[in-house]
């Protein structure tokens, strides 16, 4: 009887630790995303979003694709400053995003680099209810003057 009690207690302890670690490590923004170009409808890149030690999020390009009939760009020739001439693979092009205090599915105060045009915009993002689609908006000044793209998690 005492062995059964210990087994039951051990099982409850391990399952609670497992559930706790899943709750702590599950962050729906972290992971790999396929970007969808809003103008062409094609996937242009895959991005990996990571959470930095300061609690902000950063997205790094891990794969690129060219549009049909276009040459594949390899380097960020239009990027500003230290990013100019850097390879697209490994390029951080979204950074500084933090979870909104009012909505856990919204991320604010970020920056978005348009790697083709070379401009840096203010950014915000919103996850859909399932956590499988992310709408990223880059804008100048106010959010109304901007452009949104959708990313799909895989």
UniProtKB/TrEMBL annotation:
One Pfam family recorded for the sequence: DUF2147
Organism annotation: Acinetobacter bouvetii DSM 14964 = CIP 107468
Signal sequence bounds: 1-23
InterPro entries: DUF2147
Keyword Secreted: no
Origin: domain of life: Bacteria
Keywords, in A-Z order: Signal
The keyword Signal is assigned to this record: yes
Chain ranges of the DUF2147 domain: 31-152
Name by which UniProt lists this protein: DUF2147 domain-containing protein
């Amino acid at each position: 009887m005492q062995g059964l009690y210990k087994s039951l207690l051990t099982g409850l302890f391990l399952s609670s630790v497992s559930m706790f670690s899943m709750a702590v490590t599950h962050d729906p923004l972290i992971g790999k995303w396929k970007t969808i170009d809003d103008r062409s409808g094609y996937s242009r890149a895959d991005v990996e979003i990571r959470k930095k030690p300061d609690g902000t999020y950063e997205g790094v390009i891990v794969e690129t694709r060219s549009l049909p009939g276009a040459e594949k760009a390899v380097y960020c020739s239009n990027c500003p400053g230290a990013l100019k001439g850097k390879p697209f693979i490994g390029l951080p092009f979204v950074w500084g995003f933090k979870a909104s205090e009012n909505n856990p599915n919204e991320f604010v105060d970020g920056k978005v680099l348009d790697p083709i045009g070379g401009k840096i915009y203010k950014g915000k993002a919103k996850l859909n209810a399932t956590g499988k689609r992310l709408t990223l908006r880059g804008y100048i000044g106010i959010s109304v003057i901007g452009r949104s793209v959708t990313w799909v998690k895989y």
